[in-house]
Write a structure and sequence with these properties.
heterodimer; A: 114 residues; 7-stranded mixed beta sheet; B: mainly beta; globular
Chain lengths: 114, 108
């Protein structure tokens, strides 16, 4: 059974960089798309971006100038960096497998506040 | 981007009733690559349907999906109390991938 375990700072100051990491256990890392999705408190889901089989990343245009998704195949890990955060970036962030997502991380609440 | 509009906003049903959730895309969805997810409070979403009509592994067979042009439907054949939650559609045929705003299913 594939498990995605994610971690990172839960509190980030405005204008700083949000960083999250997601480790994949119990299943292959290679051969899958990997995705990040976020959900502001009480609101719906927003696609942040994905990284494909070849390591090419694809981002939501609304975030493209601030977001980087990367992977470390040697560690079976996925990472997300979002720069210049504001309160509008406060959300639960999920790492996930696939583009029709069949496995999700547990979610990390990131609050942007001074 | 392909905007997905879900209706109704809230669906109130009695156990055993049939429920129909709608998702309308603003443009065609390539390959009918549309998924449905169920999300319960405090949990990550769960994939129910992919490719508009294929049931995901472990999804109960009371859930089914269909497509007609840019209109997609998720049907719950007989509502069970455990089905309460918010349901989201997502298209993944075009970039950027987009989600609908969700339909809340509650017990009447």
């Amino acid at each position: 059974q594939v498990q995605l375990q994610q971690w990172g700072a839960g509190l980030v100051k405005p204008s700083e960089t949000l960083s999250l990491t997601c480790a994949v256990f119990g299943g292959p890392f290679r051969g899958h798309f990997w995705t990040w999705v976020r959900q502001p408190p009480g609101k719906g889901l927003e696609w942040i971006g994905e990284i494909n089989y070849d390591g090419a990343a694809n981002y939501n245009p609304s975030l493209k100038s601030r977001v980087t998704i990367s992977r470390d195949m040697s560690k079976n890990q996925l990472s997300l960096k979002l720069t210049s955060v504001t309160a509008a970036d406060t959300a639960v962030y999920y790492c996930a497998r696939g583009i029709a997502v069949d496995n999700w991380g547990q979610g990390t609440l990131v609050t942007v506040s001074s | 981007e392909n905007v997905l509009t879900q209706s109704p906003g809230t669906l109130s049903l009695s156990p055993g009733e049939r429920g129909i959730l709608s998702c309308r895309a603003s443009q065609s969805v390539s390959g009918n690559y549309l998924a449905w997810y169920q999300q319960k409070p405090g949990q990550a979403p769960r994939l129910l349907i992919y490719g508009a009509s294929s049931r995901a592994a472990g999804a109960p067979d009371r859930f089914s999906g269909s497509a007609s042009g840019t209109d997609f439907t998720l049907t719950i054949s007989r509502l069970e109390t455990e089905d309460v939650g918010v349901y989201y559609c997502q298209q993944y045929g075009n970039s950027p991938r987009t989600f609908g705003q969700g339909t809340k299913v509650e017990i009447k």
